[in-house]
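Aim 2 progress. For LPS export ABC transporter permease LptG, the working sequence is reproduced below.
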Amino acid sequence: MKPRILDRFILKELGSSFLFGVLTFTVILVAGDLLFKIADMLIEKGISLSTVLKLFVYKLPSVVVLTLPMSCLLSTLLSFGRLSSNSEIVALKASGISFQRIARPVLFGASLVAISAFFMNETVVPIANRAAENILMYDVVKQKPTLLRERMFLKDESGGKLNRVIYVGRLRTRKGSMENVLVQEFDDGRLSRITTADEGNWRDGVWTLSDGKAFSVDKEGKVGFLFGFKEQRLPLDLTPTQVARSSLKPDEMSLSQLREHIAIMKAQGANLVPLWVSYHLHIAIPWASLVLALIGAALGVRPQRRGGMGVGFGLSVLIVFAYYVVMSMGRALGESGHIPPLVAAWLANVVFLGFGGLLTLRANR
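Predicted structure tokens for this construct:
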């Protein structure tokens, strides 16, 4: 076989199994989580069918991205298992082709899947998650007497320069009120003034802070008390609803947005470790496709006895479960500060890549 023919042959074998895996795992995840929520919204809360369908569509991209590593694992397990049971792997090895060469198109295809997952996480998924969150907040939860959001950060920029950062401890959208407000004002990138207030209220189209204090910050970083106030206007040209929509969660941000958010939080003196763990996980998780595909290929070439697709599917579920257990442990250790965020995010990939490397060496014997 010429190398190009071998590559096309392996990729063709993987293609149908990969699509089957994406469809199967998507159905399982949707049936196990989204369908129960959708049924509850339709029956218990009386949410309209059109709203529920929109929520389903917006949640789907994040589910599909989650299934890509699983599908890579399943497709390599099934495809290489089929090749092994038909003695095609034996024939290739007898022709002097090593397992590493056979697995080359697997790594190529899995890399394309990983890159696609990364770009989906950067573009489609954050927008879709944000849209789903808005539907939950404004179409589903609107029946509640108050709509509460906590720990929000807003920034004001002009000309590429940061002018102001506003932290809101609690926002009650329906009441148009804030609690525990902190305003940081910047002059040419330097923190120059801090204003704190117990509460803020939306009256006649204007935000007003109440019972607050103002402090100056000199170039050396020393803070000095300026004055206290009963009421003071907050320069924020957003309604309560717009304020709620302006605050994003890490899974609703791209890498660039998350990096900007980390810079803002750093100016607040906040704990950045959980955010850095999320940042590195944004990069690490898509590459699980490559790691799991290598493991699937190495396991698939082992002599097949019984079970076929059923065994391959069950083994895929077990390996994926083990991967996400290790990933969750790494995340917990990273967020608690026991290991660096970079190590925490890539721990599962490194561990399973080592496991896949050992299986690859055995598969070439």
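Confidence is low (pLDDT under 50) at residues 143-147. This observation will guide construct design in the next reporting period.
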